[in-house]
Amino acid sequence: MIATSVREYLDDVSAQQLVERLLAAGVNMTEPEEARAGDALAGKIVVLTGTFPTLSRAEATALVERAGGRVTSSVSKKTSFVVAGEEAGSKLDKARELGVEVIDEAELLRRVGGAA
Hey, which end of the chain has fewer CB within 10 Å, N or C? Predict the structure, then answer.
């Protein structure tokens, strides 16, 4: 129903003229491509623990995966690094015990070029 309404509006000559005026005024009507982190974390195994200042767990996972990394739920010797936020618990302890690198959200964003 909404799509039909939008289509009917855009079929109207006055709406088309408005779009033309907006384009002439320099309004960018293209949707930007999603920021890609490339392969900055290609082959890396990452563990997330705790809560992060700006990213949800799902967003952090997606960011790592877009950068070519893989998120796992447990720390092992194969873990490349752990991203630790507030209230990090046993995963942080395990990483320290195994000598696995521990970084924060800011460093994760730096490594993938800030593509959140």
Answer: N
